[in-house]
Amino acid sequence: MISSAFNKLSADKQDRILNAAFKEFAAQGYELASTNRIVQEAGISKGMLFYYFESKWGLYCFSVDYGIDYMRREYVDLLDDEETDFLKKLKHASEVKLELYVRSPHLFNFMGSVVLDHEVNLPESLSNRLTEVQSTAYSKLFSNIDTTLFRNDLPAKQIVKLIQWSIDGYSQEITHRLAGRRLSTVDLKPHWEEFEAYLIALRKVYYQQEEATS
Question: Based on the number of CB atoms within 10 Å of its own CB, is 32 exposed (0-12), middle (13-18) or buried (19 or more)?
Answer without folding.
Answer: exposed
